[in-house]
Amino acid sequence: MSKWVGFIDFWADVKDYVKLSCHSKNVALPTLEVAPGEALKIMRTQPLLKFRAVNTNRKRNESKGAQSIQFRSSTDADWSDAIPLEDGMIHLPGHFPDTIDECPGWFVFSPLLTGLVGTILTRWKNARAQRNSIELFDVQVGVRVFFEREEGV
User: Fold this and answer.
1) Using CB atoms within 10 A of its CB, is residue 145 exposed (0-12), middle (13-18) or buried (19+)?
2) What is the DSSP string of 14-67?
3) 45, 108 Cβ separation under 8 angstroms
4) What is the pLDDT of residue 132?
5) Which residues neighbour 29 within 8 Å (Cβ) at sequence distance 6 or greater?
6) Which end of the chain has fewer CB atoms surrounding its CB within 10 Å, N or C?
7) Who contacts 51 (Cβ-Cβ below 8 Å, separation ≥6)?
8) What are the per-10-residue average pLDDT scores of the chain (153 residues)?
9) What's the whole-model pTM score?
């Protein structure tokens, strides 16, 4: 039997608006459903962050301090950093075009690899902007599941 490798993306519902203000806070993001199917052998997972548009009121701005997109598999589980966002990682000059596509998190979710199937709660930890605010529109979090499958299954 031959094997083939592929990936499937699972996306949460769109959150219309996320605001990073100059005060650090945790921002709830939509719940994510991950269901790759039993016939697939999961090789690894990759958390994803996506937003369609940004508004900085035409002023230079950036994220401030260590932040992260966090996942957890249930309400009693601990939060895990899925996408670490370093100080200044989101850097926006004043003339920044207002569309962006994907910011993939290359952090491999090894401790939660098997627990990453099902309902995943998500949040933006320590969301904060350097100056005034950064407004993100149509924000989504997701998981790319890389899998292996035997042909004929």
Assistant:
1) buried
2) PEEEEEEESS-EEEEEEEEEE---TT-EEEEEEEEEEEEEEE-TTS-EEB-S-E
3) yes
4) 82
5) 12, 15, 18, 69, 122, 123, 124, 139, 141
6) N
7) 18, 100, 103, 136, 137, 138, 139, 140
8) 82 91 89 83 83 74 87 83 83 62 44 59 90 84 84 65
9) 0.78
Q: How far apart are CA 63 and CA 46, in angstroms?
A: 22
For the chain, the residue count is: 153
Number of domains in the chain: 1
Tokens read off for 12: 């949460």
- φ, ψ at 59 (rounded to 5°): -115, 145
Burial of 20 (0-12, 13-18, 19+ CB in 10 A): buried
Please tell me the distance from the alpha carbon of residue 85 to that of residue 43, in angstroms, as a whole number: 24
